[in-house]
Amino acid sequence: MFSLWYAYFAVKNSNLRIGDLNVPFLRGNMVDAATLEKLEAGYKKLAASDSKSLLKKYLTQEVFDALKTKKTSFGSTLLDCIQSGLENHDSGVGIYAPDAEAYSVFADLFDPIIEDYHKGFKKTDKHPPKNWGDVETLSDVDPTNEYVVSTRVRCGRSMEGYPFNPCLTEAQYAEMQDKVSSTLSGLEGELKGTYYPLKGMTKEVQQKLIDDHFLFKEGDRFLQAANACRFWPTGRGIFHNDAKTFLVWCNEEDHLRLISMQMGGNLKEVFARLVNAVNDIEKRVPFSHHDRLGFLTFCPTNLGTTVRASVHIKLPKLAANLAKLEEVAGKYNLQVRGTRGEHTEAEGGVYDISNKRRMGLTEYEAVKEMHDGIKELIKIEKEM
């Protein structure tokens, strides 16, 4: 109460109006005491931990104090952004955007994390316009089929007019799925396929999708902690074409994940298929785009192009010297993960290697980095 009377007195005895003050409880936008208490306790534990996350690196006491009472128009707080990183000290990044506005409201934290992760994309930089480039200049990175098991290129998209997972209502989830399934049913040619909603899925269909490695599970602990799995399985589903080389995930982490994939190392074919699919779907569904940040996504690591081009690859000699593998990958801005992606181990010496940068470069440039890096890794493996 003292703070409220003090603020009122300060306004009364100055030329300011109440609306001019950045005081949440005077603007009707107060962050409740329970949220503030969780924030303070979580921040204290994170600061005392040995976490190597980008969240810990950039959430200084000064930044924390400046942001802890702020809210977006959707009601998202700093806690909604960082609760996953507060709960999981082994996070690499530790922050998500509960809605598109969060990137602006909590920019003092998002901007340095984005700059660090995306290799120098500063808050004064602007992401270039979409450019798929000349697909013909790409190739099969492993024409002899000795090293690359499979190739995959995916991108994320958010539907315009909807917040991200933590702020979606159950009705919005259902509405979005209806729009997505009707849009995908219009795809033709090699993209023609079937949409399978998770809700009410039969055991036979479920097993079929598991056998094909298509079925995503309810969010991992990082997404669970970020409150991204509400109303599961409402509004979630999977689409794949008849040849099982094109896949769409609806409302897993992002609103849409569009994925092109096939066995072997023919990156040119895989990328061309994704480009055709995205161009077709964009004609029917408007996507959220930001002039500076590019295409908007739930996780800041996927902003910009949102493109992740990856291979499952066997590099037994390089794998025996993981430091060397990481060193070469780093030169080409590649990320080395376990066989099943982030937070997993390599199974049978098979690694998931992908481009790391998604901002400050075009879609084509992101894929070309992976293309050139994988060819170099194979060359070194042969020499060893």
From TrEMBL:
Its EC number is 2.7.3.3. Belongs to the ATP:guanido phosphotransferase family. It is an enzyme of class 2 (transferase). One of its GO terms (biological process) is phosphocreatine biosynthetic process. GO terms for cellular component: extracellular space. This is arginine kinase. Residues 35-119 form the Phosphagen kinase N-terminal domain. Keywords: ATP-binding, Kinase, Nucleotide-binding, Transferase. The keyword NAD does not apply. It comes from Frankliniella occidentalis.
